[in-house]
Amino acid sequence: MYKLEDIINYEFTRDLILKNQKNQQVLTVFDDTDLTSDKFKFMKVGKTYDCKILLFARIQKYEKAYQRKAEKFKFIGKEQIGKYERLKIQDSQGNILYVNRDFENEIKNRKIYLIPLRYDILEVNNIVR
Q1: What angle do CA 95, 9, 123 make, to 5 degrees?
Q2: How far apart are CA 117 and CA 66, in angstroms?
Q3: Cβ-proximal residues to 3 (8 Å cutoff; 6+ apart), any chain
Q4: What is the residue extent of each domain of the chain?
Q5: Could you tell me which residues come within 8 angstroms of residue 13 by beta carbon, excluding any fewer than 6 positions away?
Q6: Degrees to nearest 5, angle at CA 94 with 89 and 98
Q7: Running DSSP on this structure, what letter comes out for residue 109?
Q8: CA–CA separation, 96 vs 2, rounded Å?
Q9: What's the CA gap between 5 and 42, in Å, rounded?
């Protein structure tokens, strides 16, 4: 569960500032659903939501090019979200995140090392993007 701390609006997109209610970690999550629908317009600052978040990331081998440190994620399984099957992972703070299946071959011993680039909202309260 995530509490919506703030919304930063841009011309056609917005960032959602979400605070994980279990570990108090704050994530800035990109939301571009205004371009395709108004599915997440119901979200209000101060309210708590069940969110599924997509992590855009690079594989560790690209670390030098991006000058970012790779983080270790635990592979949990696969989950169908809307029409796509995603890989379900957990970061070191306990956040459950999702990545595209492109990373499936990179999982070793139920672990994967990724360089986080951006977080996107996938689903809120069972409403899929």
Answers
A1: 35
A2: 10
A3: 18, 19, 21, 46, 47, 48, 49
A4: 2-128
A5: 30, 31, 32, 34, 35
A6: 25
A7: T
A8: 11
A9: 14
**The overall pTM is greater than 0.85:** yes
SS3 69: coil
Q: Token pair of 15, please? A: 């960032």
7 vs 65: CA distance, rounded Å: 31
91, 105 contact by CB (below 8 A): no
Q: How many helices (H) and strands (E) does the chain have?
A: 1, 10
Q: What is the pLDDT along the chain (129 residues), one digit of tens a residue?
A: 999 999 999 988 999 999 999 999 999 999 988 777 667 889 999 999 999 999 999 887 654 555 667 899 999 999 999 899 999 999 999 999 999 998 898 888 999 989 999 999 999 988 875
Contact status, residue 82 vs residue 124, Cβ threshold 8 Å = no
CB neighbours of 71 closer than 8 A, spacing ≥ 6?
Answer: 91, 92, 113, 114, 115, 116
Sequence letter at residue 84: Y
Q: Determine the straight-line distance between the first and last CA of the chain, rounded to whole angstroms.
A: 17
